[in-house]
Each structure stands twice: as structure tokens, then as C-alpha cells.
Design a protein that fits this description.
Shape: globular
Structural class: alpha+beta
Distance between the termini: 25 Å
Number of helices: 7
Mean pLDDT: 87
């Protein structure tokens, strides 16, 4: 399987977007040691829920619990010792957005430290701010630039061509700073996985691969948010849609999301990344929209978005026949009840026009997902260029909710 770019940048930097909030642990905050045959309660504390608002929680996909006030909450169903628990938000309060912390683990005593924090939806909305900097192609120059911008709270997204202008695009959407490192690309997949996990243990998430003609590099980024550690697994890339879904959903059930495919040492591997959160990912495939009008893509993306799925990108499955080889991939974090709204706007003619457009959309909560080219009259005819924007709602965690930065 290979990534079909078709003008979509950074759909795999949903990349490490890698990163959410709190650690599940082993039921920390438990009140007493476990005893065989004894059952234990699961609960926590609510803060920020406005008067008259209601949020519905679930544990292990059921046992609905309606919460209407701040303070302690406890699920009705008790669990046997060493049973896994996973608390998710089934329904968000109207006009508010809530997030969970320490929401998964295994019970060894009464669990009382799950955190549910709520705030007004307008305050919770991510409003990305973009800037363009000089295009840098060599490792040293890009590192210096990325660290300078990172110190001001801007995360490097990608290099871009706007009309005849080459730029590096940066985004500020979190109250944090960023530190970047670059290491030489290893020669084998095994060595790359070792490097990724060593950097992840230090708090550096994989960001991108780059070659400047002299050296091939792996770029890593660290944010001052306590999001680490990060862990990675490299598996054989799949060439059929069924095998891909089996692999991606198996990894997603363990909290690993698809970073992307990469060719190294004569083989193509699928890179999966995991953070400290309780996120659990589910993937689905939809019909390709490359030969459709932009409106067809928007209709598909919004239908999936209302089900909680975010668009990842267009992929080519080499092991499938003809028109079945292309698929649109979507991903959902089943531990939350996020939704996504998509729109396309006209392609811009330079960096100034792009920044004006992207920053105006950012004030409404839409992030720039990248440019796409559609071929409604066939690939032999001129394409229709559009800039794609997406707006998350009731969304927590940077893998699902951010523009496409590694963090």
C-alpha cells in the first residue's frame, strides 16, 4: 500500500499529531488493595459542568451514567478485581465540551481518580493561527528555523508551494512551545523503530522525514505539555483494503494510530504511534473522490465526520483491482464523541492569500487540512484545486483535533 498524495499534504501528520492527555495507569487513586472475589467501583470527579447541563458517560461501552452536577460520580456496575475499565463520553453537554483524564486501567481497588473537565464550547474551540517563513531545504537551516518559531509557540507543519512561492508553514494553536531535533535516517526498519522509541522515551514525537540531497533525516519534536512518552511499532505495509483494516483496527484497539507508510531498507512498513492517552482508534474506508467534484468529497467527509471519523487521506492499495485500488481512509477515536465538519475553499495564489484565508477560517475553529486537486472530468483533463478545512467539535487530544502537527 502506498500513500496517494493527490495534493494532500500532512494528512499523515495527523502524523503524530500523536498526542492526547492523561495516562490510564493501573487505576491510580485506588482506595484499597485488591482482594480476589471482591468487586470494586469505578468513578471520579467532575469540574466545570455548568448549571442545568448534562453529560452522559459510559464504561466499557455501556453502563450509561448521566452526570448533572460537579463533584464525585460513580458507575452503578462494579467490576471484579483486575478487570479493565475504559470510560468514554457518550453525549456532551449542550454548549459545553468535556474531556477525560485517567480514563482507563485495570481495577485493583475502588477507582476514584478519573477526571472529567468541562468548559464552554467557545472556550474549548481550537483557533489555529498560521504564519509563513522562508523555505528551508537543508537540515541545519530548517532545525534553526523550527526551533526559533517553536520558541514562539509555532509548530512546523510542512513546506508548501503557493503559486510560484515556496514557504514553510507554521501553526500556533496550543499554549506551548516546541523543541526540534533531527537524526540521521537509519538503514533498516528495525533500527528506525529503535530510534523512534528511544526518542519517544525522551519525550520527542516523530514529526517527518526529510532529505536535502546530502543526508536523509528523521525530525522529532517535543512540546512543553507533558504529553510523553511516545511509542512506535513498525509492521509490514498491507496491499489490500481488508488486510489494512485488520491491521489498523488491531493496532487502534491497543491505542496505536497510523502515522503512515515508509519505504526503508528495501521494504515498505506501516508506522504506528501511541501516546499516554486512553484513545482507541477505529478505521474505515470509503469510495475514492479524486475523480469527483469537490462537493462529493465534502458530502462524504461530513457524513463520516458526523459519525466521529476524521479524514486521513487517499490511499492506493496495490493488491486490489482497477477502481477498487483507491480508497479514502477515515479514523475515529472511539473513546470520545467528537464530530468533524469539512469545507473546501478556492485555491490561493500566494502565501499572503493563503494566510489571510487560513487565519480567517481559524477564527471560526477550522484548521487548514491542506490542498487537494479533484478531477471531475477525468485525469486527462485539468483538475480543480481547492483548499480543505476541517472543524472538530467536542474533540479532545491532538491526534484527532489539531491541524496536522505532530503534537
Amino acid at each position: 500500500m502506498s500513500i496517494q498524495q493527490r495534493g494532500v499534504r500532512c494528512m499523515l501528520v495527523c502524523l503524530v499529531p500523536l498526542i492526547l492527555a492523561a495516562c490510564g495507569g493501573d487505576g491510580g487513586g485506588n482506595d484499597s488493595p485488591s482482594t480476589p472475589g471482591v468487586t470494586y467501583s469505578v468513578g471520579g470527579q467532575v469540574t466545570g459542568l455548568a448549571a442545568g447541563k448534562v453529560v452522559v458517560l459510559q464504561n466499557r461501552g455501556g453502563d450509561d451514567l448521566t452526570v448533572s452536577a460537579n463533584g464525585a460520580f460513580t458507575f452503578q456496575t462494579r467490576l471484579n478485581a483486575n478487570t479493565a475499565y475504559t470510560v468514554t463520553i457518550k453525549t456532551q453537554p449542550v454548549g459545553q465540551s468535556c474531556t477525560l483524564a485517567r480514563a482507563s486501567g485495570s481495577v485493583t481497588a475502588n477507582v476514584s481518580d478519573i477526571g472529567l473537565s468541562c468548559q464552554d464550547a467557545s472556550a474549548a474551540m481550537i483557533k489555529p493561527l498560521y504564519l509563513a517563513d522562508t523555505y528551508r531545504v537543508d537540515r541545519a537551516s530548517l532545525l534553526a528555523q523550527a526551533n526559533a518559531q517553536g520558541g514562539n509557540g509555532y509548530a512546523y507543519l510542512f513546506g508548501s508551494v503557493e503559486a510560484t512561492e515556496y514557504i514553510n508553514l507554521y501553526v500556533k494553536d496550543l499554549a506551548t512551545t516546541y523543541t526540534w531535533e533531527a537524526l540521521d535516517l537509519p538503514a533498516t526498519a528495525t533500527a528506525l523503530q529503535t530510534q523512534l522509541n528511544a526518542q519517544g522515551a525522551r519525550g520527542y514525537a516523530h514529526a517527518t522525514f526529510m532529505t536535502d540531497g546530502l543526508v536523509s533525516s528523521v525530525f522529532y519534536v517535543r512540546a512543553a505539555q507533558g504529553l510523553a512518552p511516545f511509542s512506535y511499532e513498525l509492521l509490514p505495509a498491507q496491499t489490500s483494503s481488508g488486510a489494512f483494516l485488520n491491521q489498523a483496527n488491531g493496532q487502534g484497539a491497543r491505542g496505536f494510530h497510523l502515522v503512515g507508510n515508509f519505504s526503508i531498507g528495501g521494504a515498505t512498513v506501516a508506522i504506528y504511534g501511541k501516546d499516554r492517552s486512553s484513545a482507541r482508534y477505529t478505521y474505515t474506508l470509503q469510495a475514492p473522490t479524486g475523480e469527483a467534484a469537490p462537493e462529493s468529497f465534502v458530502a462524504q467527509a461530513n457524513a463520516q465526520g458526523q459519525l466521529g471519523y476524521r479524514f486521513v487521506g487517499a490511499y492506493f492499495f496495490a493488491g486490489e483491482q482497477g477502481g477498487q485500488a483507491f480508497k479514502n481512509i477515515y479514523v475515529k477515536d472511539s473513546s470520545q464523541a467528537a464530530t468533524f465538519d469539512y469545507k473546501t475553499l478556492g485555491a490561493t495564489s500566494g502565501s499572503g492569500a493563503l494566510l489571510t484565508q487560513a487565519n480567517a477560517e481559524g477564527q471560526s475553529g477550522y484548521f487548514y487540512a491542506g490542498p487537494m486537486i479533484f478531477f471531475p472530468y477525468g485525469y486527462g483533463q485539468p483538475g480543480v484545486a481547492r483548499n480543505v478545512y476541517a472543524k472538530p467539535a467536542n474533540c479532545s487530544g491532538t491526534v484527532m483535533c489539531r491541524p496536522g502537527s505532530p503534537l
